[in-house]
């Protein structure tokens, strides 16, 4: 039975928004450009569900792009924020909650020390400045398809929204700003060796997503992160493991808990803010102590360590127990199985890839293209048309997927059997639409 939810209020808001906000959204992927249709303006969320301004309810499979490890409006997180807000929203002085969140991050991860910031972008930008300050070198190496936020020097061949919108290069980023950025293919050990052999003494750092989720989910091949660790150490460059997406999501300590290759610096965000703006970068004490005021590398923020954000982050992490991760891992495996079964049944060529409990689905135009996806060039052979047909049918049936084939699906500790049943009811229709 075809269904199509009514969305007049979302449509009206989108029109209003477009008059005052470029493209009608405050982050490009929200505009549904890759999949078409009216972006849904959300009114509220509860657990694994969110409801738009027209009253349509959706199973949420983006979880705010990762932060909501325990679903929407979890009472423990909401209470923590409420209590913090009642004491004052910001002081511009140190607070006890910042110390507690810093301690919790250090306890869970390999980082010796952390500095809190407001977004993943700030975290990677600051980590790079710090790596350059420490090594007194300038070249930054990144991998094609990895997204590290909208830092000028890192927007070269970035994944996520840049990939979704097929933007070849971002206007406004000058050649000078990316002149010191070298982009390598992901999972390519030979390319890395060659670059270091030629320019090793110029390289300040290699930044990599701990396990990439911004070109779809493309995990590191066995030993790839270890190789990065070895080569950077050999040449005196720092390794920055970007755990903004994976951190506290795929295990209590993030990707580092699943693949202990190690790094010099780490960046965190999303889950550690509990849905409020908080992020961090951290790592080796000798490197971190170069930061002002301890050292000469300047970095600052009016709202860094904000009391509401730190309270939400701490509350989110308090709920992030082993049992919570076991539940998310199980639910994710079950959902991947259901998606695969529906797509096989409908004869849709596809490949599902996962990194811990994060996963994404690559749709292909024909069976010959189906293969394991190891890098950005391969990720770009996916079929946007099939993805879009699948996405829109799921949306029409109340299942909210990431609106791009380059993004990862996120679950939470409150996604349960009931949710899986609802998704399973929608899947045959969506698979049928992708097959057509
Ligand atoms: N690094 C990674 C791996 C990310 O996935 C993201 C955002 O999706 C960022 C950095 C940037 O974080 P933010 O959007 O909070 O600036």
UniProtKB/TrEMBL annotation:
Residues found modified as N6-(pyridoxal phosphate)lysine: 270
InterPro entries attached to this UniProt entry: 4pyrrol_synth_GluAld_NH2Trfase (IPR004639), Aminotrans_3 (IPR005814), Aminotrans_3_PPA_site (IPR049704), PyrdxlP-dep_Trfase (IPR015424), PyrdxlP-dep_Trfase_major (IPR015421), PyrdxlP-dep_Trfase_small (IPR015422)
Cofactor(s) needed by this chain: pyridoxal 5'-phosphate
Keyword Nucleotide-binding assigned: no
Domain of life: Bacteria
GO molecular function: glutamate-1-semialdehyde 2,1-aminomutase activity; pyridoxal phosphate binding; transaminase activity
Pathway: Porphyrin-containing compound metabolism; protoporphyrin-IX biosynthesis; 5-aminolevulinate from L-glutamyl-tRNA(Glu): step 2/2
Entry EC number(s): 5.4.3.8
The reaction(s) this protein catalyses: (S)-4-amino-5-oxopentanoate = 5-aminolevulinate
Gene3D superfamilies to which the protein is assigned, alphabetical: Aspartate Aminotransferase, domain 1 (3.90.1150.10), Type I PLP-dependent aspartate aminotransferase-like (Major domain) (3.40.640.10)
Subcellular location: Cytoplasm
Enzyme class label: isomerase
Gene Ontology cellular component list: cytoplasm
Assigned keywords, A-Z: Cytoplasm, Isomerase, Porphyrin biosynthesis, Pyridoxal phosphate
Annotated GO biological process: protoporphyrinogen IX biosynthetic process
Subunit structure: Homodimer.
Family per record: Belongs to the class-III pyridoxal-phosphate-dependent aminotransferase family. HemL subfamily.
Cross-referenced HAMAP family: HemL_aminotrans_3
Record's protein name: Glutamate-1-semialdehyde 2,1-aminomutase
Naturally occurring in which organism (per UniProt): Epidermidibacterium keratini
């Amino acid at each position: 039975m075809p269904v199509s939810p009514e969305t007049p209020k979302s449509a009206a808001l989108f029109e209003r928004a477009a008059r005052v906000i470029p493209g009608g959204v405050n982050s490009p992927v929200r505009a549904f450009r890759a999949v078409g249709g009216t972006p849904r303006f959300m009114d509220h969320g509860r657990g694994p569900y969110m409801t738009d301004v027209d009253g349509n309810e959706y199973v949420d499979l983006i979880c705010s792009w990762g932060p909501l490890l325990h679903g929407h409006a979890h009472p423990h997180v909401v209470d923590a924020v409420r209590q913090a807000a009642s004491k004052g929203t910001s002081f511009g002085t140190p607070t006890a909650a910042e110390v507690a969140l810093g301690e919790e991050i250090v306890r869970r991860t390999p980082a010796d020390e952390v500095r809190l910031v407001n977004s993943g972008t700030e975290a990677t930008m600051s980590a790079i400045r710090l790596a350059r300050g420490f090594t007194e070198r300038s070249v930054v190496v990144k991998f094609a398809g990895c997204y590290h936020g909208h830092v000028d020097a890192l927007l070269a061949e970035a994944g996520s929204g840049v990939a979704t919108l097929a933007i070849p290069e971002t206007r406004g980023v000058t050649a000078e700003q990316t002149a010191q950025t070298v982009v390598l293919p992901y999972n390519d050990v030979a390319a890395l060796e060659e670059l270091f052999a030629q320019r090793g003494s110029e390289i300040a750092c290699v930044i990599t997503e701990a396990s990439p989720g911004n070109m779809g989910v493309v995990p590191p091949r066995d030993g790839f992160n270890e190789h990065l660790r070895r080569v950077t150490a050999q040449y005196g460059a720092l390794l920055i493991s970007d755990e903004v997406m994976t951190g506290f999501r795929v295990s209590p300590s993030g990707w580092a808990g699943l693949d202990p290759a190690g790094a010099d610096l780490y960046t965190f965000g999303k889950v550690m803010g509990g849905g409020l703006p908080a992020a961090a970068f951290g790592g080796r004490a000798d490197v971190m102590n170069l930061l002002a005021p301890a050292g000469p590398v300047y970095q600052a923020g009016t709202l860094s360590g904000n009391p509401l954000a730190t309270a939400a982050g701490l509350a989110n992490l308090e709920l992030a127990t082993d049992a919570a991760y076991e539940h998310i891992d199980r639910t994710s495996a079950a959902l991947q199985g259901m998606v695969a079964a529906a797509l096989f049944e409908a004869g849709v060529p596809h490949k599902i890839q996962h990194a811990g409990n994060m996963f994404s689905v690559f749709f292909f135009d024909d069976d010959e293209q189906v293969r394991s996806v190891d890098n950005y060039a391969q990720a770009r052979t996916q079929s946007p048309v099939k993805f879009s047909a699948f996405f829109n049918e799921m949306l029409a049936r109340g299942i909210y997927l990431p609106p791009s084939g380059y993004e990862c699906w996120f679950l939470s500790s409150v996604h349960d059997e009931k949710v899986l049943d609802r998704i399973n009811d929608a899947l045959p229709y969506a698979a049928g639409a992708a097959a057509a």
